[in-house]
From TrEMBL:
<feature type="domain" description="AAA+ ATPase">
    <location>
        <begin position="39"/>
        <end position="151"/>
    </location>
</feature>
<dbReference type="Pfam" id="PF16193">
    <property type="entry name" value="AAA_assoc_2"/>
</dbReference>
<keyword id="KW-0067">ATP-binding</keyword>
<dbReference type="InterPro" id="IPR021886">
    <property type="entry name" value="MgsA_C"/>
</dbReference>
<dbReference type="InterPro" id="IPR008921">
    <property type="entry name" value="DNA_pol3_clamp-load_cplx_C"/>
</dbReference>
<dbReference type="InterPro" id="IPR003593">
    <property type="entry name" value="AAA+_ATPase"/>
</dbReference>
<protein>
    <submittedName>
        <fullName>Replication-associated recombination protein A</fullName>
    </submittedName>
</protein>
<dbReference type="InterPro" id="IPR051314">
    <property type="entry name" value="AAA_ATPase_RarA/MGS1/WRNIP1"/>
</dbReference>
<dbReference type="InterPro" id="IPR032423">
    <property type="entry name" value="AAA_assoc_2"/>
</dbReference>
<dbReference type="Pfam" id="PF12002">
    <property type="entry name" value="MgsA_C"/>
</dbReference>
<dbReference type="Pfam" id="PF00004">
    <property type="entry name" value="AAA"/>
</dbReference>
<dbReference type="InterPro" id="IPR027417">
    <property type="entry name" value="P-loop_NTPase"/>
</dbReference>
<keyword id="KW-0547">Nucleotide-binding</keyword>
<comment type="similarity">
    <text>Belongs to the AAA ATPase family. RarA/MGS1/WRNIP1 subfamily.</text>
</comment>
<dbReference type="InterPro" id="IPR003959">
    <property type="entry name" value="ATPase_AAA_core"/>
</dbReference>
Length: 426
């Protein structure tokens, strides 16, 4: 027990010791009141590592006084589940904490589900993946609560660190440690809202610092050196990674350069350049579009260069592409127009192609009536090029408009041409 990590030893023993997540498990929350009154529902806890999923589960067990069993879905077998079921039969209701529940297989579910359904087992599942994408519906339907946990604030982490420094039973209190508020803030900021990382960093800094007059004085140099090693959570292919991609696109769409660069930095720390480049290319055409058509070519060149260069140099062309897209005029008119046309087809708004547009490059086309097409290039119109007033849509769709110009950037000029050509048809 002496060798247990500080993060493990400081795990809350009851709900009143939980730090952060006030809206979910604070004293004014519905869940807290239910548990204190003896009602513990099955639930799913969803969020990034280190935000308190395991801690909340053990705290619920401590406050409810129910027997507590913890399993990891990547390692648990049918026999482990059967043992929990047997204990539930012998001792009554128990809590089963199942970490990485999104990896639960069907055989395990079949063994466990009836007992969750009849209430003899309270299931608390934890996952870093979006449960609506990754957790079997049979499990979700039996969990009354699906709770999304968020990263702890710097203030929350500082509170946790202060508790670890002063707790003489489980923390560093009996060892004699001196730390400034500024140092705790640095540790909290480096942990990025991850309680486990913050306590692990604190413990490492403690052992890397020198003792003065019987007191270990935390070293600024040790904090700075060790903080660089704790890493950034960016699980490739996981929910958090896709959330980062989504945040990057929405920040570019919203023209927030600083936010976009922050999310780009976070994504590049995960090392998946290909996924980032693909998303940036999509953004160039989805959100910039006709307002600045040159951006598509610029982003394509930047993403090509990034993939050839690799990290860390890849960040240079990607940063330029992101800033350019943030500050560019924006339009989504082109793809919206195409989506409108697709929707019309799905709604059955179709018709036969006009005969004069059908292929006529074969003997017998005239006999089928595939005649009458007029070649626009033969009829110049100002500086626009060739244009002639003839029908292109099927008879049933004549007059339908899918494209609605956005009056922004280069599309202003395109919009005026579009409206002028419409007037010629009248």
């Amino acid at each position: 027990m002496h060798n247990e990590p500080l993060a493990y030893k400081m795990r809350p023993r009851n709900l009143d010791e939980v730090v952060g997540q006030e809206d979910i498990i604070g004293k004014d929350s519905a869940l807290y009141k239910m548990i204190i009154k003896g009602h513990v529902p099955s639930m799913l806890l969803y969020g990034p590592p280190g935000v308190g999923k395991t801690s909340i589960a053990s705290a619920i067990a401590g406050s409810s006084k129910l027997p507590f069993f913890a399993l990891n879905a990547t390692q648990a077998g049918k026999s482990d589940i059967e043992q929990v079921v047997m204990d539930a039969r012998m001792s009554g209701k128990v809590i089963l904490f199942l970490d990485e529940i999104h990896r639960f297989n069907k055989l395990q579910q079949d063994t466990l589900l009836p007992h969750v359904e009849n209430g003899s087992i309270v299931l608390i599942g934890a996952t870093t993946e979006n449960p609506f994408h990754s957790v079997n519906p049979a499990i979700r339907s039996r969990c009354g609560e699906i709770l999304q946990l968020t990263r702890l604030t710097v203030e929350d982490v500082c509170t946790l660190l202060q508790q670890a420094l002063t707790d003489k039973e489980r923390g560093l209190g009996k060892l004699g440690v001196s730390a400034t508020n500024e140092q705790l803030i640095k540790i909290a900021e480096a942990s990025n809202g991850d309680a486990r990382k913050s306590l692990t960093l604190l413990e490492s800094v403690y052992y890397a610092s020198d003792e003065q007059d019987g007191v270990t004085v935390l070293s600024d140099r040790a904090i700075e050196h060790l903080a660089k090693r704790i890493g950034v959570y960016g699980d490739k292919g996981g929910s958090h990674f896709y959330n980062l991609l989504s945040a990057l696109q929405k920040s570019i769409r919203g023209s927030d350069t600083n936010a976009a660069l922050y999310y780009l930095a976070h994504l590049l720390e995960s090392g998946d350049i290909v996924a980032v480049c693909r998303r940036l290319l999509v953004i160039a055409y989805e959100d910039i579009g006709l307002a600045n058509p040159a951006v598509g070519a610029h982003v394509n060149a930047a993403t090509d260069a990034a993939q050839k260069l690799g990290l860390p140099e890849a960040r240079i062309p990607l940063a330029a592409a992101v800033v350019e897209m943030c500050l560019s005029d924006k339009s989504n008119s082109a793809y919206k127009a195409l989506d409108a046309a697709i929707a019309a087809i799905h709604e059955g708004k179709t018709g036969d192609i006009p005969n004069h547009l059908k292929d006529a490059h074969y003997a017998g086309a005239k006999e089928l009536g595939h005649v009458g097409y007029q070649y626009p290039h033969d009829t110049p119109i100002g500086t626009f090029g060739g244009w002639i007033n003839q029908q292109y849509l099927p008879d049933a769709l004549v007059g339908m408009e899918f494209y609605k110009p956005v009056i922004a950037g280069e599309e202003k000029r395109m919009a005026s041409i579009y409206e002028k050509l419409k007037s010629f048809k009248m």
